[in-house]
Amino acid sequence: MNRFISTPPSRLSGATVLGLALLWLFLMMLSGCAKQAVILMPDRDGHVGKAEVSTTKGKQTLDKEGDTTSVISKNFSPSSVTTAKPADIQKTFGEVLAIEPPPAETFTLFFETGTTDLTAESSEKIAAIIQSCQQRGAISVSVSGHTDATGSDQLNDQLARDRAEQVKKLLVEQGLNPDLITVSSHGKGNPAYPTPEGVAEPRNRRVVVIIH
Amino acid sequence: MKTSHHAFLMAVLISCAAQAAPSDIIGHIQNIQGTATIERGNTTLPGIKGTALYRGDRIRTGKPGAVGIVLTDDTSVSLGASSILTLNDYDFDPKEGKFSLVMRMLKGTFSYISGQIVKLSPDAVQLQTPDATIAVRGTKLLINVEE
């Protein structure tokens, strides 16, 4: 298609142009022109982010609640942004919205410095984690160890992993099915409070338990 | 020409090898109503609550059918009836700084709620429909792909 468009029009006879236009229309019909619509919504915290919808011919940016654009072919720009009506959203997406997984429940645990011993306050959260898993009928429990951006990566990661393994052990001792649990170390790559390299931040040295 | 093809192939092979093992679980089915199936390679599995998901899986809902999935970075995707979603690429490895999430919505209705990957590496997430690509900055999207 691009090759046809980039050919100087002056070299094409009227009949050729008409023929190409008809061919193009025919190809469009063959491709079905299935409409694809995208609507921006606030997330669970009420935060509205941003989305860019692109085809080979153009781009539209959605950045307000209810912003919507649609695409009928990769050879056309997405349509101008309009606002979706709540009634239309409910009609098309009611079923999808009803099946959305409930938000995860998250617990953050802290340790005595340099050890895999939970602080007294965090120890008490183990029972709450077990209770939450039972109430939700949890299908997955992710246990991730995190460090701050000081010290040797290798030592930090080992300690983060050891702490996460210790939390898994405590949860299994309290009766949680070990098959539901995945243990990982995020090292310094997923801080709760981002800092420059080399800055000590005790709130980043933690284990995060996420229950789905 | 041939040499450059070989170099390209090698690059593809190396980049494939560098990705997480395909055996890693990348998410689970959290909610389901009606019927849904998972197509994995040449096999088709019935979807039930708790079914593990892997990179490359194709999720297809029946009519009636609706399914809610959660990936390991907390990304959540729901599908309405007669919908097809493929999980083309996924990497969530904060320790190594490796992030990727590419999903293709082939037909049907979808709700997408972003997870940790978007926060840690916004450019790593791409949603695709048959004719468009969608870049996301931390939010929820509703997507309808008509047949």
The CATH architecture of the largest domain in chain A: 2-Layer Sandwich
CATH superfamily of the largest domain in chain A: OmpA-like domain
Strand content of chain A: 15-25%
Gyration radius from CA atoms of chain B, angstroms:
16 Å
Radius of gyration of chain A: 27 Å
Number of strands of chain A: 9
User: Biggest interface and which pair forms it?
Assistant: A-B, 51 and 54 residues
Order of helices and strands of chain B: HEEEEEEEHEEE
Helical content of chain B, roughly?
10-25%
N-to-C order of helices and strands of chain A: HHEEEEEHEHHEHEE
Task: Report how far the terminal alpha carbons of chain A are from each other.
Answer: 48 Å
Q: What's the β-strand tally of chain B?
A: 10
Question: Number of helical runs of chain B?
Answer: 2
Task: Give average pLDDT of chain B, whole number.
Answer: 89
Say what oligomer this is: heterodimer
Largest sheet of chain A: 4 strands, mixed
Question: Strand order, biggest sheet of chain A?
Answer: 6-9-7-8
Short description:
The complex is a heterodimer of chains A (212) and B (147). Chain A contains six helices and nine strands; from the N terminus they run ααβββββαβααβαββ. Chain A is of the alpha+beta class and 212 residues long.
Detail the topology: elements first, then pairings.
The complex is a heterodimer of chains A (212) and B (147).
Chain A: H1 2-6, H2 14-31, E1 36-41, E2 50-55, E3 58-62, E4 67-71, E5 82-83, H3 86-98, E6 105-109, H4 120-123, H5 125-136, E7 141-146, H6 153-173, E8 181-187, E9 206-211
Parallel strand pairs in A: 7-8
Antiparallel strand pairs in A: 1-4, 2-3, 4-5, 6-9, 7-9
Chain B: H1 2-18, E1 25-40, E2 43-46, E3 52-54, E4 58-71, E5 76-79, E6 84-93, E7 98-113, H2 116-120, E8 125-128, E9 133-137, E10 140-145
Parallel strand pairs in B: 7-8
Antiparallel strand pairs in B: 1-2, 1-3, 1-4, 4-5, 4-6, 5-7, 6-7, 7-10, 8-9
